[in-house]
Specification:
502 residues; 5-stranded parallel β-sheet; globular; 7-stranded mixed β-sheet; Aldehyde Dehydrogenase, Chain A, domain 2; aldehyde dehydrogenase (NAD(+)); 15 helices; NAD; alpha/beta; 2 domains; 19% strand; Aldehyde Dehydrogenase, Chain A, domain 1
Length: 502
C-alpha cells in the first residue's frame, strides 16, 4: 500500500454521502507516532494525578458543550439512531465525571513490616505508552473507556480508530486535545488492519508500546493476544459475543419482549452485547414468540435521524458479512419478523419503513425460530439484525445452552424467581449478567468485559480498568541503621503451645 493511501468514509444512510476522506498510514508511521508518544509520556506522568484529573474534567465539559454536534456526526457516519448516539456521547461525559475524581484516588497502601524501623509502601505507576485499537460501532464511547483512564494514570496514547468512523474519531480527538493535553500525549493514526498489525509488531519490538487495548473481533483479538504474548505483555481484549437471554416459565413476557427487541435489534444488532439467542422455556415459547414477532413487525426501521428502532448497517463490509449470515438459515428454521428478508429495497420492502431504502444499507429484522445447538446461527456471532430462538426444559439445560458457543460477554435472564437468578448467575460463564434487563447497556462505573472467546478476563470501566493502565510498584524503606534481612531477622515470640485446660 503506498504512503498516503486515501480512504473515503461514507454514510450508510446514503452511500453517496462522503463524510470524510483520510490518508491511511503505513506501519512505519505507527511506530514513529509511538516513539513520539514515548518521548512525551514521562513529562505527562510527572504531572500530579489530581491535575491530570482536571484535564479529564475539561474533556467532559468540552464533550457536553459539543454533545449534539458529535451525536449527529455519529448518526450520519455510522447510521446509529440519534437517540442511541446521544446516549453514546453521554457515556463519555459519565466516564470523565468518574475519572475526574479518581485523579485524587490513585491510592497505594502502606503495609506493616515484620521488622522494626522499617516501612513498606505500594504505588500505582503508569505503564508507559498504550496502543488503543477500536471498532467503529461505538466510535466515541468505547475509545473513551480506554483513553480517559489511560491518560488519567499518566500514560501516553496512540489510538487507531476504525476507518469507517474516521470523522467521528477526528472530532473526538479534536475535543480531547483541546482540553489541555500536552503535545504528543494523545495521538491518532489512521491505518488499515494489516498495516496496524505490522506497526504494532514493530513498536512492541522497539519497546515503545507497553500496553495494547483492542476492541473488535475474536479472530483479530487472538492475533493481537499472540503478538503481545511474544513480548510478555498482557493486552486488554474486548471481543465478540453470542449473548443468550433466558426466558423462564414465570417471566413477565411483555418485559422480556421489550428486552429482546432492544437487545437484538438496537443499533441493528451491531453490538458485541447484542442478543444472540433467546432460550425460552418450552411452556411459554409459543406465546413469547407470538409477542416478539408482533413487536418486531410493528417496530419502525429506517432513517436514524428520526425515531426508529434501528437504521442501516455500519458499512458495506458489514452488510456483506450479514448476508453471509443469512445464508446459514436452514430448512428446519422458521423465519419471522418482517415483510421480507435481507436488504430492504423498493423491490423488497419493509412495511412502515421510514426514508429511502435504496440509498442506504438497510436490512430486515429477522427472527429465526427453531435454531439448534449445532447451527452456525446458534454458535457464531451474527453482528446484524437477527435473533435466534430455541427452547429448554429445565434451568440447567438453559445454562448449558447459554455457555455452549464459548463466548462469555453478556447474558440476561427474565424471571420472577430469585432462586433462578442465582442459579443462573452461578452457572453462566458471562462476565456480565442482567436480570429482567437487556443484554446491552453499560454504566461508566461498572466493570465491562468478557471471558472465553469474548476476551481474556480484562475489564474496562470503573476502578477495575485502573489495573490495565497502571503497574504496582512496591518499596521498602529501612531506617534502622542496620541491614535487616526478611524472614531471617524477624522477632520470634515464644509461646507454650502445649498448654491445655485442665
Amino acid at each position: 500500500m503506498p504512503s498516503g493511501y486515501a480512504y473515503a468514509s461514507t454514510s450508510p444512510i446514503d452511500v453517496n454521502d462522503l463524510v470524510l476522506e483520510v490518508e491511511l498510514q503505513r506501519a512505519e508511521a505507527f511506530v514513529d507516532t509511538a516513539r513520539a508518544a514515548h518521548r512525551a509520556q514521562r513529562a505527562w506522568a510527572a504531572v500530579p494525578s489530581p491535575v491530570r484529573g482536571q484535564v479529564i474534567g475539561n474533556i467532559g465539559k468540552l464533550v457536553e458543550a459539543n454533545a449534539e454536534a458529535l451525536a449527529r456526526l455519529v448518526t450520519r457516519e455510522i447510521g446509529k439512531p440519534i437517540a442511541e448516539a446521544r446516549g453514546e456521547v453521554q457515556e463519555i461525559v459519565d466516564t470523565c465525571a468518574f475519572f475526574l475524581g479518581e485523579g485524587r484516588r490513585l491510592y497505594g497502601q502502606t503495609v506493616p513490616s515484620e521488622m522494626p524501623d522499617k516501612q513498606l509502601f505500594t504505588f500505582r505507576t503508569p505503564v508507559g505508552v498504550a496502543a488503543i485499537i477500536t471498532a467503529g460501532n461505538f466510535p466515541v464511547a468505547v475509545p473513551s473507556w480506554y483513553i480517559v483512564p489511560a491518560l488519567l494514570c499518566g500514560n501516553a496514547v496512540v489510538w487507531k480508530p476504525a476507518e469507517y468512523s474516521a470523522a467521528s474519531a477526528k472530532a473526538f480527538y479534536d475535543i480531547f486535545t483541546s482540553a489541555g493535553l500536552p503535545e504528543g500525549v494523545l495521538n491518532i493514526v489512521f491505518a488499515d488492519g494489516e498495516e496496524t498489525f505490522k506497526g504494532l509488531d514493530l513498536a512492541l519490538e522497539a519497546g515503545v508500546v507497553h500496553k495494547v487495548g483492542f476492541t473488535g473481533s475474536t479472530a483479530v483479538g487472538r492475533r493481537i493476544g499472540e503478538l503481545c504474548g511474544r513480548h510478555l505483555q498482557t493486552p486488554c481484549l474486548e471481543l465478540g459475543g453470542k449473548n443468550p437471554m433466558v426466558v423462564t416459565e414465570d417471566a413477565d413476557l411483555d418485559l422480556a419482549v421489550r428486552g429482546a427487541l432492544f437487545a437484538g435489534f438496537g443499533s441493528a444488532g451491531q453490538r458485541c452485547t447484542s442478543l444472540g439467542t433467546a432460550i425460552v422455556h418450552e411452556s411459554v415459547h409459543a406465546e413469547f414468540l407470538r409477542r416478539f414477532v408482533a413487536a418486531t413487525e410493528e417496530a419502525v426501521v429506517g432513517d436514524p435521524t428520526g425515531d426508529v428502532l434501528f437504521g442501516p448497517l455500519l458499512d458495506r463490509k458489514f452488510a456483506d458479512h450479514f448476508e453471509r449470515i443469512l445464508d446459514t438459515v436452514r430448512e428446519h428454521h422458521v423465519v419471522h419478523g418482517s415483510t421480507g428478508i435481507g436488504r430492504i429495497t423498493k423491490d423488497n420492502p419493509r412495511k412502515g419503513f421510514q426514508g429511502d431504502p435504496d440509498r442506504g444499507l438497510y436490512y430486515h429484522p429477522t427472527i429465526v425460530d427453531g435454531v439448534r445447538p449445532e447451527d452456525g446461527l446458534f454458535l457464531e456471532e451474527s453482528f446484524g439484525p437477527v435473533v435466534g430462538v430455541t427452547t429448554y426444559r429445565d434451568l440447567d439445560e438453559a445454562v448449558d445452552l447459554g455457555n455452549l458457543p464459548g463466548y462469555g460477554l453478556s447474558c440476561a435472564i427474565y424471571t420472577t424467581d430469585p432462586n433462578k437468578v442465582f442459579r443462573f448467575r452461578t452457572g453462566i460463564g458471562a462476565g456480565m449478567v442482567s436480570v429482567n434487563n437487556s443484554t446491552s447497556g453499560a454504566e461508566a462505573h461498572l466493570p465491562f468485559g468478557g471471558n472465553g472467546k469474548s476476551g481474556n478476563g480484562s475489564r474496562q470501566s470503573g476502578i477495575w480498568v485502573l489495573d490495565q493502565f497502571t503497574r504496582w510498584q512496591s518499596m521498602n524503606w529501612d531506617y534502622s541503621g542496620s541491614l535487616q534481612k526478611a524472614q531471617m531477622d524477624t522477632a520470634v515470640i515464644e509461646a507454650d503451645l502445649d498448654f491445655r485446660l485442665g
